[in-house]
Specification:
By secondary structure, this protein is of the alpha+beta class. The chain folds into 2 domains: 119 residues, no CATH class; 102 residues, Arc Repressor Mutant, subunit A. The protein is built from 10 helices and 6 strands. Helix 3 packs across helix 9, helix 5 crosses helix 7 and helix 9 runs antiparallel to helix 10. The protein starts with 8 loop residues before the first helix and ends with a helix. The mean pLDDT is 92.
Length: 225
């Protein structure tokens, strides 16, 4: 597989568009991830070269969908591959229908409902509105968000800074979420569902052009080609 080493946001966009699927940290053997194609000294530097800041910029700019889509790991998916991966990993049934069929947790349904009512809501406000601010409910809250990302029902839409009464930054930024449908529509990707088998063939052909046999084995397990 082609080796990459980048230092700018624009170069990262080129890599995402080329490979289509870019994990933040190493996930697939012999395959790029944002952390192994960038310099460690730039991470958390707070500069324009900081990949940690880029991760929230990609979805804001509509470059790529961002979330913990597979194996509870953070990934970036290009605009080109998103419809194919959604067709494979997502569902044509509503979340409510899946909940009624016992396929979705009650926490996930509640969180999805709140997110759909206030697109772009940040985790602090979402946790409060869901009544999950207590320490013992944090795991339920976190698991619900991971579940919704894994089923590709929600995406990370960016981050929001915590501010004090004076409007000054005060503490860590928090992640914000939107429904996948909302994010896709706003970024002119409203046709994101298709036939799973056709999507698998197209996705496999894409990866065959760029991946080594080793990385293909891992991708075959993820997408069940």
């Amino acid at each position: 597989m082609k080796e990459y080493m980048i230092s700018t946001y624009e170069e990262a966009i080129e890599v995402i568009n080329e490979v289509g699927l870019l994990p933040l940290a190493s996930l697939i053997s012999d395959y790029p991830s944002l952390d192994n194609i960038t310099s460690k000294e730039h991470w958390h530097s707070g500069t324009e070269f900081d990949p940690w800041l880029w991760r929230a910029k990609f979805p804001v700019d509509g470059v790529a969908a961002y979330g913990k889509f597979f194996k509870k790991k953070s990934l970036l998916i290009s605009r080109e591959l998103l419809p194919l991966i959604r067709a494979i990993k997502g569902s044509k049934h509503s979340l409510k229908k899946r909940y009624e069929d016992g396929l979705v947790s009650g926490a996930a349904l509640e969180l999805f409902t709140l997110i759909s009512e206030e697109e772009g809501i940040d985790t602090r406000l979402l946790r409060a509105k869901a009544g999950m601010k207590d320490k013992e409910k944090k795991k339920v809250f976190d698991n619900g968000l991971v579940e919704l990302q894994g089923s590709m029902d929600i995406v990370v839409s960016g981050t929001k800074e915590k501010t004090n009464g004076m409007g000054e930054k005060n503490g860590w930024s928090s992640t914000s979420f939107e429904t996948m449908e909302y994010w896709a529509k706003n970024n002119h990707l409203d046709q994101i569902c298709g036939e799973s088998e056709d999507a698998k063939k197209e996705l496999k052909n894409h990866f065959l052009k760029i991946c080594s046999p080793e990385s293909m084995k891992a991708l075959e397990k993820i997408f069940k080609f």
